[in-house]
Amino acid sequence: MLLSRYFLPVLKESPRDATIVSHQYMLRAGMIKQSSAGIYSWLPLGFKVLKRIEQIVHEEQERAGHVAMLMPTIQSADLWRESGRYDDYGDEMLRITDRNKNDLLYGPTNEELVTDIFRSHVASYKSLPLTLYHIQWKFRDERRPRFGVMRGREFYMKDGYNFDLTKEDALHAYNRHLVSYLRTYERMGLQAIPMRADGGPIGGDYTHEFLVLAETGESEVFYDSAVTDLTFGDREIDYDDVDACEGVLQEFTTKYARTDETHDEALFADVPADRQRTARGIEVGQIFYFGTKYSEAMGATVQGPDGKPTPVHMGSHGIGVSRLLGAIIEASHDDKGIIWPEGVTPFHVGIVNLKQGDEEADAACKALYDQVAALGLETLYDDRNERAGAKFGTMDLIGLPWRITVGPRGLKNGVVELTSRKTGESEEMAPEAAIAKIAEIYRAHGLVK
Ligand code: 5CA
């Protein structure tokens, strides 16, 4: 992408109503524009990151054997009357009436809709286990939408629903989700710690939230600092292996880690004093097992091996896809701007031409651009007629992890400069060497073959 042809409306100043750094940088970097309270347009740069995050979520769900689909945003109130949640959900639910006076709603979540699909098409235990998921916009009429995409009213969520014959099978589905979520967040460069939580309006007392530690987080959390040493890494996992998935759950959830909703002072006191931590966190996902709550209310039964109708055991599993942009920025930025982890960066490489219009510099930039493209990666090439300082400022703000700077002086010596956004370190090297290094870096992230 040539910056001269892109739409990147960067702002010099932080809008006053943006009080946390992720919200400020998302506005300043031209990623989002508020359209009304808690509702945003996703401008090209923000949209690109949203799609990267979505792609990682899809890949990890498919790896875990979960099946993608797409359900509508608008749902019929009747389904929610069956579960009893139409009235229970309260003011957070946006209720709508169509021209024929049918009661509709903009879905805040999809347990009812997916249970209806399931009961319409699945009759036998032989079709189980099954996990259906989608990534779709949700609406919750939050009392205090704030912090940009962190707590929106309209937001993008991955929500998955497992259907199993027994509680045991459903708990395996729960564990599978836990493992897939650990992988998902790590690919985004995040540490998200599973913590014992509260079921809230979804229900069930078997639930974990995934929290990214950040001062600006909305949840208060209490944990044993040893949990922050745990990483899933690139170990192999067989998602059908019940014991292996259970082992990961044990490994990641045995040490004390709870949100304020379930915090227990007595249990916390058992954590060695030097490892007790109280902090704040951003909830980027939550998994639930709620048994037969919805299947019984809505008649979602299958014929069991004994021929008898059995209500299925279910759980639901959410990832805050749009909130993740805010969480990643909170976890990865400096005073100049965002620092995207390689896994989610909107463009893999930024090219800055120090002397636009100089024949040699222009040709060198074009060649680098083509070579990055040949690796299957994307470049944002700042080809504007701007001062170097302004170009660097934009690149630092939007946070591309690697920048190649090209100028006539360097080219005379056969070199360009490769700069890491994270460390700020620059290295001069031949253009081919810069491309080789870029390839190596992104190969480690599975983005280059
Ligand atoms: N049906 C279940 C699981 S699929 C569910 O709705 N869970 S949830 O309520 O915990 O939402 C899932 C995730 O969506 C949360 O962990 C959070 O990361 C994100 N989320 C929830 N509310 C908002 C909001 N108002 N703005 C942005 N993200 C949100």
TrEMBL record:
It is found in: Cytoplasm. GO terms for biological process: prolyl-tRNA aminoacylation. InterPro entries: aa-tRNA-synt_IIb, aa-tRNA-synth_II, aa-tRNA-synth_II/BPL/LPL, Anticodon-bd, Anticodon-bd_dom_sf, Pro-tRNA-ligase_IIa, Pro-tRNA_synthetase, Prolyl-tRNA_ligase_IIa_type2. Keywords: Aminoacyl-tRNA synthetase, ATP-binding, Cytoplasm, Ligase, Nucleotide-binding, Protein biosynthesis. The keyword Transport does not apply. It catalyses: tRNA(Pro) + L-proline + ATP = L-prolyl-tRNA(Pro) + AMP + diphosphate. Its main location: cytoplasm. It is an enzyme of class 6 (ligase). Pfam families: HGTP_anticodon, tRNA-synt_2b. The keyword Disulfide bond does not apply. Belongs to the class-II aminoacyl-tRNA synthetase family. ProS type 2 subfamily. Catalyzes the attachment of proline to tRNA(Pro) in a two-step reaction: proline is first activated by ATP to form Pro-AMP and then transferred to the acceptor end of tRNA(Pro). Homodimer. This is Proline--tRNA ligase. The lineage of its organism: Bacteria, Pseudomonadati, Pseudomonadota, Alphaproteobacteria, Rhodobacterales.
